[in-house]
Design a protein that fits this description.
3-stranded antiparallel β-sheet, Aspartate Aminotransferase, domain 1, globular, 36% helix, alpha/beta, Aspartate Aminotransferase, domain 2, binds pyridoxal-5'-phosphate, 12 strands, 7-stranded mixed β-sheet
Amino acid sequence: MTDTETNAETETSIDAGTGSGAGTDTADAEIDPDREATTPVPIADPELSAEAVGRVESILEDGRLADGPEVRAFEEEFAAYCGTETGVATANGTTALHAALEAVGLEDGDAVITSPFSFVASANAIRLAGGTPVFADIDPETYTLDPADVERVLDERDDIVGILPVHLYGLPADMPALCDIADARDLFVIEDACQAHGAKIDGRRVGEFGDAACFSFYPTKNMTTGEGGMVVTDRDDVADRAASYVNHGRDMSGTGSYDHVALGHNYRMTSVAAAIGRVQLERVAEFNRARRENAAFYDERLGDLPLETPTEPTGSRHVYHQYTVRTDDRDALAETLSEREVGTGIYYETPIHRQPAYETVSTAAASLPEAERAGDEVLSLPVHPALSERDQRTVVEAVRDHFTTQ
Ligand SMILES: Cc1ncc(COP(=O)(O)O)c(C=O)c1O
């Protein structure tokens, strides 16, 4: 359930200035009843404003389409939003993770603990950087890495060099506990914040906790650039290496355009993407507030049913990239909602260690009961900011009817 006490705060610098803290009892009043209802109700509905279109037109007229000042400006603004020194823009979230792992110095064969209950990109990035993903189980309430299980894995192996927690569905992983573990064992931490723009723990935004953090700007995310990603960090050495890595290992300090000091990739963001991202960043507080209001609306109306609604631990600020319920009747509920034209998603039915692409990875043999059980029971409902109140009532009625008319 949403914790109302700790989340009365509103976003500051780029706050649209409307509404109040989510999770209150006033969800009805705060949802704009004039928003058009859409049937069917989609699971995601990215919103691009006329301003974003205008900014893209300016870029197209200017003709500087690839890397350039627009990308530098977006990097600065997004890093400031996260409370970090530097941002390095990338082509997508996967390349952000890969570049960050290279930038912290991951070497071939190094092992990194991550979550098995995530989009496959979290673990793929470790493999792409030459490392071995080692899976620890998740906490069944938060769906994020369970620090106690991370300790168990660390006690069993002596080749772990880092931890890559995932802030799943918009809820931060337990960063204070995971950072303590990492500090005690001298491990790096890279946050996979691809689903959690603006999420917080004790007032600190995700991205501020690890050696680096990585974001995705895919269209369904809390803010988008079309395709795009970002590494944010306070470490100058990591920022320099990541910036170089995404630019074919170029010497970023020198004046020579074609001096390459390390192996790298072309993982650069385009100026068109950055232009969209800058406008979306101005609106992310508004988007997150709408997501939280939508989540509170569901919490209030679904809490008495035989399903689990999302948890928001004290001190955490969830940004509801997904509103994910859990029930052992998941498949039938998904079927009912599909018949009622309510879009749903299962993120993720097959945990990463059970994916066919992981058959050859030795650590895929692990038994991770909580991740496997979650894969059988979770279902995400539409929570995006474009939902009208009527859309939400359609969702609530369909879910309630499923459980009450059986
Ligand atoms: C948790 C997580 N990690 C990584 C990624 C990869 O981001 P992208 O799709 O932008 O490459 C995603 C995106 O779906 C994600 O949800």
